[in-house]
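Researcher: Let's do a round of design. I'm pasting the structure tokens now; please hold your answer until I've finished.
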């Protein structure tokens, strides 16, 4: 649990904001990786 890992440094609402931010940008970049052709990855 990230709240326990970051206990003392961040509040639970700050952890929630970081997780939401991460998954928002992860999903946008994950979409880019699934639509690229294999030849593009090799370059």
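Researcher: That's everything. Go ahead.
Model: Designed sequence:
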């Amino acid at each position: 649990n990230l709240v326990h890992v970051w206990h003392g440094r961040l509040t639970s609402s700050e952890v929630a904001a970081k997780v939401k931010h991460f998954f928002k940008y992860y999903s946008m970049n994950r979409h880019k990786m699934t639509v690229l052709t294999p030849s593009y990855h090799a370059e």
